[in-house]
Structure formats: structure tokens, C-alpha cells
Design brief:
Layout: H1 3-9, H2 16-25, H3 33-38, H4 47-63, H5 68-76, H6 80-88, H7 99-105, H8 123-134, H9 153-166, H10 181-184, H11 197-216, H12 219-228, H13 243-251, H14 255-261, H15 270-276, H16 286-295, H17 308-313, H18 322-335, H19 341-350, H20 353-361, H21 367-381
Helix pairs in contact: 2-4, 2-5, 4-7, 8-9, 9-11, 9-13, 13-14
Amino acid sequence: MGIHHIFYCNARPLTTADYLCRNCLSDEMPEDPDVLEDFGFNRCKTRDEQSHLLGVYIGLFVYRDISSETVDAWRKGGALMSQITEEYNKIPEVSRGKYFPWLLRNAHILSPGKTVNPVQAPPEIDLERILGQAASYLGGEDSGKTLEQLEPFDKKRCFVFFALALENANPSPFEHAPFDLWYQFGFATCVSRDTTHQGIRHAEGGLGGSYATLLSGHKHRRAYCKSLGIPYDGPPDPPICPFDEFWTAYSSLSLPSVFDKYGYGHVMDQNLRDFLSCKPEKRPHVWRLLHYIAIGEVNAIDSIPELKDAAKFYGISSLADTGERIALYEFYRQLLGVVDPLSLDEACAQGTLLKLALQHLKTDVGARIKSLLVKLDLSKRRGG
């Protein structure tokens, strides 16, 4: 029985091994707290180590075709490490890959009863660490300054983003005040036709990786290989953009020219170029709508002030009940899967959103959404 079928057939209760297997088939890091605890991810000291461990499980589920039922039995029997070792030992040593040898050197991660400081440190501690590591990139009058001492605010915002990029880490759409990094650095524009959680994550990873290479070359890849205990055999570092040049370009709305200068212009589509070159107050509302969709919480407009204007523009009232918000959220998520974001923004502004929806979604537009869109279109035509 396929793992995806198990999630819908109700043939048996789902286990954490089922969720882990689904993560592995999607090549996606687990987020479920019970999966992280049951399968050793919370015992990893770094996110790179979590990635290595995921690679071990991908080898089992994808390449060895071990079932989630079997892995669940291994875990419940307290034999996860020994059974993984037995399974990998069936493979010729030269074909075992790089993750299993790493696990052998770090077997404590799967040892019951061992306590290891988890990778999920409180956000303020983790941010303090990465900011400290990035401090050496500050020069001139900023040398030795803390984040709080950096001025103007754009420099402060860019330094936090720069520190994340050095770690090959992407900002979260959940983070907003005071830095609002996910939105301000254009991640909303990279969310295109795949508005599923997995599709959004994939799009974020592509843009985040481009920023990381622009600002730190292959630093993260070298660190990843070191963590894995293998030599780095990739290309030498390309020229990288210094922090001062980066924040100055951001502040002057000229980041696209920096990408062009360092040979990464090809990663920027026209939407991203226009976004980064536009004054924040003049950016189309649709990018905040995509921010809202990326957060995936229909009541986020109540807690994130930056979303409220866009929500109002698209007819999502702060007074609407949860059912109406869910209906509109799903409608916009579906429509953005088939139309260009700027076409959606234009249709909403002109009061022709229902026409656009019917053209692209046809019978998928339900009666409740039609009624809401009629009201919204009429208010736009009347200048409301």
C-alpha cells in the first residue's frame, strides 16, 4: 500500500514513521514535533546534521524500499540504530553513500535515553549566534558594532538578512515587525503557480540560495561537507558582494543591478526586479496577499498589521467570520495557481475579479465566493 494512500484510506492509525516516510518521499525536512522526537532529529546539534539524518532515512524509504510499518516496529522495539546498520550493511561499502558513515560516527543521535541539546534553540539565542558570526563582515565605522548600534534602519534590516544568508537560511513569512524580511527581500514574488506548502518552500529555497551565493559564495556547501566529514570538491568561490554594497543597493532600490554585476541576473524574473526597484508603499497589494497565503493562517490578518491593507483590498474583512476567511483564502490560493499575480491585482482594482475567476476556474467558483466577489467588484467600480 502506497504511503500517500495510507493518509486517506483510514485502514489503520497513522504513525510517526508514516509521516517521516512521506517527508522522505517529498525530500522535505520533518516539522511534526513527534517525528522530530521519535527519529532523532531533536538530538541533532545543527540543521546540517538534521539534513544528514534525513538522508539516512531517504536511503531506507526511497532506495531500500523499507516500509513505514517496518521502521515503526524498529523504533518501538528500541532497535532503530541496529536495524538501520543491518540494512545498510547489505549494500556494498562503496555504494552506501555519505550519510550512513556519518550516522555511524554519531550513533548517539539514535540512542535511547541520551540527551543532546536540541537544534531548536529559542529564536533569540539562534539569532544572537548568527549575528555574532556575521559581525566580522562589518567594516569601517561599523566594525565592532552590535545590531542595535547599526544605523540607519535599512542597514540594520539588511544585516539580519545578511546573517541569515551566510547560514544559507531563509527568513520566515511568519516574521514581520520590525524587519519583515521575507516580504521586503522579494520572497513573495518567487511564489508562482504552486501555492501548496511544499511549492512555497521550494520557491523560497531557490531565491534564498541565490542570495546566499551572492553574499557568501559556497560557504555553506563547504561547511556542509565539513559537518559530513568529507572533503569539499566543488568549484572555488565566485566574487561575492560585500555587506556595505548590499545594504546600500537595497536602500537605494537597486539590488537587481547588484545581481547583474555579480553574474546572477538570470535568477531574477521581471516581477522580482520590479519589486526590489519599487518604493514599498507603491508595491502591488498582491504581494502581501501571497505573503498571507505563504503564512497559511487565515486569521493572520488580525496579528500582522502589514497584511491588513492587502486583505481589505481583496475583500477579506477584519470582521469576517472564520468560514468566510477560509473560503476566500482557498479561492485566492487556487486562483494564484493559474493566473499571473499582477493580472489578479489589476482585475481586483478594476472590479473585474469575478470575470477573471470564472474565466480561469470556471465551475470551481462556488456560490458563496461569487456573492463575495460581486460585492467586492461593485465596491471597486464605485471607488470604495
